[in-house]
Amino acid sequence: MKLSSKPLFAALAGIALALPVSLSAQTKTGFKVLTTFPIKSSGGWDYITVDGASKRIYASHGMQVNILDVATGDSVGIIPDTKGVHGIALAPGLNKGYTSNGRANNVTVFDLKTNQVIKQVAAGTNPDAIFYDEFSKKVYAFNGRSKDATVIDAVTDQVVANIPLGGKPETGVSDGKGKVYVNIEDTNEEVEIDAATFKVLNRWKLEGGEEPSGLAIDTKTKRLFIGCGGNKTMIVLNATNGKIVGKFPIGDCDGVAFDPELKQAYSSNNEGTISVIRELSADKFEFVENIKSEKGARTIGIDTLTHKLYLPTAQLKPVEPTAENAHPRPQQIPGTFHVVVVGK
């Protein structure tokens, strides 16, 4: 009996149609460690902020912020007297930068062109994460111990609101249209804030996520990427209704970055890896790979122009446990602090 060629053609066509999806699932980033930028000053570290447009890296380090050239790693300045600095927020349109100084309970305002300190603004207790909302032209400093947010008008540099958050806040982001989101680490929640009224609109429980810290947003699809270091899970959340649309295994995450062009979210993990989650559509995501970085590189900054990632860390040595501290953090070896550069 003569067989029709139609079923074979249809099968081949089906394979061809399915092929791009299969390849997508298997495509890696091609990212690797490219170089490191040494910073010889002493002290601990937390967040890092990268501005590709001005070609600068802002790294929190001890009692100051080190500013490096994004391409060469050369030092181009410091912001001094930022006691216990955690984060750096940039408002390029206003030519201002802001640092959250955890030990001083204030925010330093500085000039982006000259790096000169303009003033210091009182915040809550232990300001940690900080970011600038371009939509409202407000700076949000999230205070870890007073469990609230200090809101600063970036035009006047005056405090305009204090928002109780009902828990220890970590990273915050904006959707660029009047909504602000922040992780609440000790209650495992995502809080939505109205940027016009400074009122809490929603509290969404992050089921299956513990100790959310790192946070990034795709403002086009309104999806939040939440790194939960407590149980090594990334939660993808619909920012319009608080529904969980994805969960993925990652590492001991403290920072998350998102590349809007590559549609990739990155979690920086203390173990020395970067977990990559790719957004295929608003409701479809895939785990791509774990890129090798360096141990201790737990926070991350991204240059969205070059797609490179920047992670601060140092060489570490173990500390003997004591009765008072059964699980001490490793100790930094003096003079070894540096920024790891990852890309193609």
Low-confidence spans: 1-24
According to CATH, what is the class of the domain at 81-205? Mainly Beta
Number of helices: 1
Largest sheet: 4 strands, antiparallel
CATH topology (level 3) name of the domain at 81-205? Methylamine Dehydrogenase, Chain H
Description:
With 344 residues, the chain is mostly beta strands. 6% of the residues lie in helices and 52% in strands. The protein has a domain at 81-205: YVTN repeat-like/Quinoprotein amine dehydrogenase (Methylamine Dehydrogenase, Chain H), CATH 2.130.10.10. It contains one helix and 30 strands. It has a four-stranded antiparallel β-sheet with strand order 1-30-27-26, with no helix packed on it. Strands 2-3-4-5 form a four-stranded antiparallel β-sheet, with no helix packed on it. The chain has a four-stranded antiparallel β-sheet with strand order 6-7-8-9, with no helix packed on it. A hairpin with a 2-residue loop joins strand 3 (56-61) and strand 4 (64-69).
